[in-house]
Design a protein that fits this description.
This is Nucleotide-binding universal stress UspA family protein. The chain is of the alpha/beta class. Helices cover 49% and strands 19% of the residues. The protein has six helices and five strands; from the N terminus they run E-H-E-H-H-E-H-E-H-H-E. Helix 2 crosses helix 3 and helix 4 runs parallel beside helix 6. 33% of the residues are buried.
Length: 138
């Protein structure tokens, strides 16, 4: 039985689709929405700002705010409660580090545009290859 689902999100339409899929497919599961801040990005702007900040957690939370607000709005459409979490690090590695605490991961197939994929790589592919639990790619 699948009772705990991890849904990694950014602010992409693919992540929103993954969350919708999880809410529809696992209506009775506890869903944790994870946003990873500070991962690789062009010129390392986000990671650098977090690292140099006097309050890294607040800066990471600020980067996550838009994506998590969108996730909460989607959950509200379904009348569902979700848990949210912000971590700092490389997205794929952070997702994999958390995956073992869940029964499954539901992830969007990609995010952002071509430039994001060139700099960041394919997070979903790495999660599928290395996850200790089943992964559904939406």
């Amino acid at each position: 039985m699948v009772s705990r689902i991890l849904v990694p999100v950014d602010d992409s339409d693919m992540a929103a689709g993954a969350l919708r899929y999880a809410l529809e497919t696992f209506p009775d599961a506890t869903i944790t929405v994870l946003h990873v801040s500070g991962g690789p990005s062009p010129m390392m702007g986000e990671a650098t700002e977090i690292a140099l900040s006097d309050d890294p957690d607040s800066v990471a939370d600020a980067y996550a705010e838009e994506a998590l607000d969108r996730a909460r709005d989607i959950a509200a459409e379904y009348g569902a409660d979700i848990q949210t979490e912000v971590q700092v690090g490389h997205p794929a590695r952070t997702i994999l580090d958390r995956a073992g605490d869940f029964d499954a991961v539901v992830i969007g197939s990609h995010s952002g545009g071509l430039m994001d994929r060139l700099f960041v790589g394919n997070v979903a592919e790495k999660v599928v290859r290395e996850s200790p639990v089943p992964v559904t790619v939406v």
